[in-house]
Amino acid sequence: MSLNLDDIKYFNVVAKTLNMTRASEILGMTQPTLSYAIKRLENEIGTDLLIRLKNGVQLSKAGEEFLEKSAELVSKWEELRRISDHEESITGTFSIGVHPSVALYSLEHFLPELCKRHDQLQFELKHGLSREMTEQVVSWNIDFGIVVNPRPHPDLIIKELCKDEVTLFSDGKKHDILIAQPNLLQTKSIIKKLNFKKFGILKTLTSENLEVISKLASLGVGMSILPQRVAKKYKNLKKIKGAPTFQDRICLIYRVEKQKSLASKEIIKSITTAPL
Known about the structure:
The chain has 276 residues and is an alpha/beta fold.
């Protein structure tokens, strides 16, 4: 048997709420991900811990017993973790989740110097959409996140690092093609406000990569929806006057329970004082 401590913690939240939807909201994860974690735990235990109902869930007899025992296990584990909180050496491996585009303009301001000052620190970089990175931090899978517009969460510390503005950019010429990443909240908001006729837009070109979008715009393929910090890598890209805008907050996020060691405090200090 190989029990996953995170799965046990997820089960405890479900047991308290008796509602998978509410529990997934509290944990900051999708309901299918939570359901999979609970089923994985049940498979490891070898029995059903929950009774699924139309309007929620109930604990089975095995679930009631497991809840009592698991609460004690989690408590003991936290006691063991507190032992490491007193360590005085700045060492260890830490993971940072960050959108690739944000990584390109943020990591350079703190990561090289941090690695140089503390040669016993090691880092694992994880990349994805900010909402995915936030979910990974909430779920204990990533230590830190540098994310855009994180939603408040009871288990997260959120520190704003800088602001950015998303709007339309072009090389100064008129174009009838709009280049954008369609699944971003910023893009959806701007397109909803955008008067296609006013700006002469006849068709769209989509890409999942902001660097590709900014490159194409700099080459004159079309106008693009971009964060200013991404667009400024190309000197010929300028804001289009009168275009809708979206304000971004770039933030450092982390779980307070995981970040009490001297090494974690040094990482937090390095990131929050970096001139982003």
